[in-house]
Request: fold
Amino acid sequence: MDLERLYREDHTFFKVIVGDFNAKIGPRRTAEERHFGTHGVEWNEQGERLSKFIMTTHTIHGNSQFQKPSHLRWTWESPGGQFHLPDRRRCCSEVLHGIGPSSPPR
Reply:
């Protein structure tokens, strides 16, 4: 589903949108960008797209509101640009109830 459509159609008062958008949001560039903090580092294309969404929906980019020490600012990058998608068919989805410290061993 389109994120903007989801935002428009959901009528709850508080909304928290969490996700890995691969977006780099830099510092506030204009007074109109009050939804961003001043502690971003750099911008990329995905950051520009997220910026448009934030400005359109009047939401707040919380991660740029607080300053972090420089040694805590990092982004994990896959070696060689490769990525892995988990195979959901092989993920364990079974839950065993009753297993705990007081349960007899199986």
Observations:
- The chain has a mean pLDDT of 75.
- The helical segments are 3-9, 45-57.
- The two ends are 44 Å apart (CA to CA).
